[in-house]
Write a structure and sequence with these properties.
- The protein has a single domain, classed as Fumarylacetoacetase-like, C-terminal domain (Fumarylacetoacetate hydrolase, domain 2, Alpha-Beta Complex).
- Helices cover 27% and strands 28% of the residues.
- It has 8 helices and 14 strands.
- Strands 1, 2, 3, 5, 6, 7, 8, 11 and 12 form a 9-stranded mixed beta sheet that branches. Strands 4-14-13-9-10 form a 5-stranded mixed beta sheet, with no helix packed on it.
Length: 272
């Protein structure tokens, strides 16, 4: 039987609220369940969140790795909304996040942009995308999966809030319009170090987010413009542009840090 969008949205919302895992992913229940259906579920979750008194504050990107697209039958990246109660701004580069109500959270260092203007299909190239950015910051996206063993397809990912559980935003760096050309180059070359409890865990790069977080932002704007019924990226939105390293499992009591070389961005620390 085809999946009922409203029923599935309610099931997913309840799963996250009660920490009750969903045994069978939507795509395994209905072989025809695809991205169009998943975005309909995501839109219903937005409606439910708005009805509960929350508001959307931006989008998060998933599958910002072109190498995965062919295997997963994707022709672009995917996305989901972020909310006023899932995004927090670090104080002086440090934040604390409670994760005890999450299933099995993972941490991802990402570049976060705040938009100064709307972005559409014409902003696909990095410099054009950056022209619409007010500031950028280092961020930590926390993802959480209601499906056993972190096993899912892209449509399941989108339907389940894009696995978005939280976003910690570091110290903003204002974008100087005169420096956009050089910044576009730097965003494809910088490196990041991910550190757990004082020990280096992994090093990543801007190249891991679609060759550049700015290019990922432009690809998102273009993808949304082609999607029927999707609201375009608008001024004031935050966009988290995809992980720069492997996603790492986290546990209470840990301290995670990220530092950047090649961009004038402040480091970020989160205690969980």
């Amino acid at each position: 039987m085809p999946i009922d969008v409203k029923a599935l949205a309610g099931e997913l919302a309840t799963a996250y609220a009660t920490r009750q895992a969903i045994a069978t992913v939507p795509s395994a229940r209905d072989g025809a369940f695809g991205l169009a259906d998943a975005y309909a579920v995501e839109a219903e979750l937005v409606r439910l969140r708005l009805e509960a008194g929350h508001r959307t504050v931006g989008r998060k990107i998933g599958y910002a790795n072109r190498a995965l697209w062919r295997a997963l039958k994707l022709d672009t990246l995917v996305w989901a909304h972020m909310y006023d109660d899932t995004v927090q701004h670090a104080s002086r580069g440090t934040a604390t996040l409670a994760i005890d109500r999450m299933f099995s959270p993972k941490i991802e260092p990402e570049i976060v942009f705040k938009l100064r203007s709307a972005l559409g299909a014409d902003a696909v190239e990095p410099q054009a995308a950056l022209a619409g950015v007010e500031w950028m910051a280092l961020g930590f996206e926390i993802i959480d999966c209601p499906f056993p063993g972190w096993k899912y397809q892209p449509a399941d990912f989108v339907a389940a809030y894009g696995l978005h559980a939280a976003l910690i935003v570091g110290e903003p760096l204002a974008i100087d319009p005169g420096s956009i050309s050089s910044l576009a180059d730097s965003l494809g070359q910088f490196t990041v170090k991910l550190i757990k409890d004082g020990e280096l865990v992994e090093e990543g790069s801007g190249k891991n987010a679609l060759k550049s977080p700015a290019r990922a932002l432009g690809e998102l704007a273009a993808a949304i413009s082609r999607q029927t019924g999707a609201e375009p990226l608008s001024a004031g939105e935050l966009v988290s542009t995809g992980t720069l390293t492997t996603s790492m499992l986290i546990a209470p009591g840990q301290q995670w840090q990220a530092t950047v070389e090649g961009l004038p961005l402040a480091g970020l620390t989160v205690r969980v």
